[in-house]
Write a structure and sequence with these properties.
This protein is mainly β. Helices cover 11% and strands 40% of the residues. It has helices spanning 66-77, 105-109, 131-142, and strands spanning 8-12, 15-16, 19-20, 26-30, 53-59, 86-92, 117-120, 124-126, 149-158, 161-170, 174-184, 187-188, 204-205, 208-213, 221-226, 231-239, 249-258, 263-270. The strands form six sheets. Strands 11, 14, 15, 17 and 18 form a five-stranded antiparallel sheet that branches. The chain has a four-stranded mixed sheet with strand order 6-5-7-8, with helices on one face. α1 crosses α3 (131-142). The longest helix is centred in the N-terminal third of the chain and has 12 residues, at 66-77. It is globular and about 60 Å long. It starts with 7 loop residues before the first strand and ends with a strand.
Length: 274
């Protein structure tokens, strides 16, 4: 157990015998304001949840073909038949000169080698940017598995720190893992575009992953086994960069579970703000 009387980020590494974790320290954030209350459950007796697919969009300002995928995703978000079935989280990993560059961690973890690409539920990579192909992948993943959990989020911000009190409620007994992202909308940056005939503004970037906290594998922190109808709490404390526009930022919380051949996203929820 570690305790501190000073707010801020603290980094720890440990040693045991001849082994140590110096190269991969653990970082925690200590806050000096009240943890938000547990989010209210509007129907405590229900385990009937809405499912959404997590669509990680791999892109970058230097990617001239990426506006093709941007267009497909925009059109699908404008289509009422499919818009509420997925949440977009855009990872800018193509070029390091991109002001939204997140690094290569996510793209390496999910085997992204061509741009544009999307990864559905952390399990299926799709590089075909035709709208019909992207929609089919979303629909197939949406129908792949039932929603096994519901997610509640109550967050508060003070200065450049956001604390989120998250609850996960199980529909059936499973082991769950949880991760969280900070997304920012409305970022202005010049986008390369090899398809000048495409309609719309490609220099305003939305759904941009600014921060992801989901363990070193990105599949999330283990919540343990949750019995059907039970709820488990998780607290996240996230440090925001002062350059991010907080009014344009929001949270996305995702939960993974075992599907027999791996752990994949079962559900995701995005908030309207911080």
């Amino acid at each position: 157990i570690y305790t501190t009387t000073t707010a801020g980020s603290l980094s720890f590494w440990v040693s045991y015998g001849t082994a140590n974790s110096y190269a991969t320290p653990s970082t925690i954030t200590a806050v000096n304001f009240a943890i938000p209350d547990r989010p209210a459950d509007p129907n405590p007796s229900s385990t009937d949840f809405v499912r959404r697919v997590m669509v990680m969009q791999f892109t970058g300002t230097g990617c001239g073909y990426c506006p093709l995928m941007m267009t497909a995703l925009r059109n699908l978000k404008a289509n009422e038949a499919v818009a509420d079935k997925f949440v977009i989280a855009a990872c800018h990993s193509y070029n390091s000169s991109d002001p939204m560059y997140l690094g290569s961690g996510l793209s390496s973890a999910f085997g992204v080698s061509s741009y544009p690409s999307v990864v559905m539920d952390m399990r299926q990579l799709v590089s075909n940017s035709q709208e019909s192909s992207v929609r089919n992948a979303i629909e197939n993943n949406y129908n792949r598995i039932a929603p096994l959990c519901g997610i509640g989020v109550h967050s508060e911000v003070e200065g450049n720190t956001v604390v989120a009190h998250v609850t996960v409620k199980a529909a059936q007994e499973k082991t769950f893992y949880i991760g969280i992202m900070v997304l920012e909308d409305g970022i202005k940056a010049t986008q390369s575009n090899y398809n000048s005939g495409l309609p719309g503004d490609f220099n305003t970037h939305n759904n941009t992953i600014r921060l992801i906290d989901g363990s070193r594998t990105y599949k999330g922190y283990e919540l343990g086994t949750i019995k059907a109808g039970n709820v488990v709490d998780q607290i996240f404390a996230l440090n925001l960069d002062a350059k991010w526009v907080q009014a344009n930022c929001r949270l996305a919380v995702y939960v993974c579970t075992d599907e027999g051949n791996g752990y994949y996203v079962n559900n995701i929820v995005a908030t309207d703000g911080l």
